[in-house]
Amino acid sequence: KNMPKIENLNEKQGFEKRPFEQRRFEPRGFKGEHKKYWRFDTAAVVALGIVLGGFFIGHYYYKAKVGANTVVVKGLAEENVKADLAIWEMKYVVTGNDVIKAQKEISNQTAVIQAFLKENGFEESEITVGRLETNDLNANPYRNSYENNLRFILNQTITVKSKKVDLVASTLNKSGDLVAKGIIFSSDYGSPVSYIFTKLNDIKPSMLVEATQNAREAANQFAKSSKSKVGKIKHANQGMFSILPQEETASATESQQINKKVRVVSTIEYWLK
User: Fold this and answer.
1) What are 94's strand-pairing partners?
2) Any idea which architecture 85-196 has in CATH?
């Protein structure tokens, strides 16, 4: 059958017969020498992009290395101090089946303790008598009625708050004289005396200066070994102040000792040159 002839447009327009993968697609209107210039311009732009990209990458990498050229050191400062305030809590107990008699007894004991404290040098303004606490055991629904226990337990607390810390310590050692008079102290809690150092803010500035100097010395030692010089402070953290017992033992706590130790560890980051 007669089929219409399909013209080869490539041949008609004069295109070169080449495999598809070898053909070069070029913008319309670029012929001859213009093709060469177009190829050159494209290559130049690509090369310039590579150069600029390398510059910026190298520039910021250099900055990052400079920014990491620091040293972090710690400076320690310690100072021995003495407590300037003592709080002594004396909790004593009276028991009985007659609440009226028990209350009179505990009132007598309160007077004996107050006299004892004044005889040892404490002012009345340093002595505070707390409220009376009464516990009726029969009010406990779980208590066995056949138990042969006393019904009432009365508790009283006297608190001594004084700056005479040495006097508190010496008088505490004499508290056995009160036991000899029939006064029973409660042992529900730990040490009855707390020794407190209240002047921490007065010594903070000088201790921070010392900690900073020690940190600088540590930085200088590092710089010397690395053949560099210490510059300005980049970042500083003054650290937490802690009050510790001067004689650290397994059972001793800071509040039980008159003599204490204040410590601060400052963390400082210096630039290195």
Assistant:
1) 154
2) 2-Layer Sandwich (3.30)
